[in-house]
Amino acid sequence: MIRTVSVEQEPWDSADATRLRAAQRAELDARYGNDDHEPGEPPTGETVSVFLVARDADGAALGCGGLRFLGDREAEIKRMYVEPPARGTGVATAILRALEDAAREAGVRTLLLETGTAQPEAMRFYEREGYRRIENFGPYHGEPLSVCYARDLP
After folding, report:
1. What's the CA gap between 112 and 132, in Å, rounded?
2. According to the model, what pLDDT value does residue 4 have?
């Protein structure tokens, strides 16, 4: 079932944004068996300039994602997450397209992202949505659990 969702910018520290990010971290901790699975500097409200939350028609928060601008017309997708009951319903695609639109509006030409080897669903999703696998970049270089992707924005 495809859901109708709205995707809007919200403060990093809003109640729903905080709850969704905590759920994402808990899921990744369980998948990787520890809480040390994110190389580099953790994202914060200061480093993630755009943070979006997807909501259903009743206003319930279903997922989130953010952009960390890297300079030189690049940005990294951070904290992309959809609650398990909403997966496969178009929520992730709606968030991703809204992030791409926000990136374009900011002059970004290339979006980068990192996911991990214990997240095959995420890898399939990004590949289906036109992202190409690239050599690990920045803090993910040489990290065996990291898998990186990029997409040039038209």
Report:
1. 10
2. 85
pLDDT digits (tens, 9 = 90+) for 87-112: 999 999 999 999 999 999 999 999 99
Q: What is the DSSP string of 30-60?
A: HHHTSS----SPPP-TTT--EEEEEE-TT--
Do residues 53 and 17 make contact, with C-beta atoms less than 8 angstroms apart?
yes
> Cβ(97)–Cβ(105) under 8 Å?
no
Question: What pLDDT is stored for residue 118 in this prediction?
Answer: 92
Q: In Å, how far are 6, 34, 37, 83 from 119, measured between CA atoms?
A: 25, 15, 12, 14
What is the residue whose two structure tokens read 């990291």? 146
